[in-house]
Amino acid sequence: MRILVINGPNLNMLGRRDAGIYGTITLEEINHNIRTEALAIDVEVEFFQSNHEGAIVDFLQESATRAAGIIINGGALTHYGLSMRDALVDTSLPIVEIHLSNIHAREEFRHNSVIAPIAIGQIAGLGEQGYINGLRLLLGHIQEGK
Questions:
Q1: Please, which residues bridge with residue 104 across strands?
Q2: 95 assigned to some structural domain
């Protein structure tokens, strides 16, 4: 089983961004931790990060047929990325939305997510552990056949 792990704009800068909000872990370290967990539960993961919405749309269109589900941290695209949202819907795959920080405790514009209504769940504010929890949630959902 393959899971797509997608990260949007500026997440490539983790480790150099505001540590008070995003922590000090890098995206490479997060991906390593996800890969380690995935190996332990016999799941294959495919990673993608882009600062460009169109590139994420292209990746989804090219990759969805070889995946069973999607974990996505859309970054700022979470709040307005409608073409990304449409591409996510078009995959017909279960989706878990991840945010390192608690977007509901931050600026008002961050409270709205265009992904949340199409996701099986949203994990926010748990830092990098959110990705591992999201992987487990998604796998459980897929295995239950929901």
A1: none
A2: no
In this predicted model, what pLDDT tens digit does every residue of 4-14 receive, in sequence order? 999 999 999 99
Which one of the listed residues 22, 32, 52, 79 is annotated catalytic? 22
Q: Answer yes or no: 22 catalytic.
A: yes
**What are 139's two structure tokens?**
């796998």
Instruction: Identify the domain containing residue 11 by its residue range.
Output: 1-25+45-52
| Model-wide pTM > 0.85 | yes
* Span 112-133, pLDDT tens digits: 899 999 999 999 999 999 999 9
Q: Is 80 one of the catalytic residues?
A: no
- 99 lies in some domain: no
**Structurally, how many domains does the chain consist of?**
1
Residue 36 lies in a domain: no
Residue 81: CB partners within 8 Å, gap ≥ 6? 8, 53, 56, 74, 114, 115
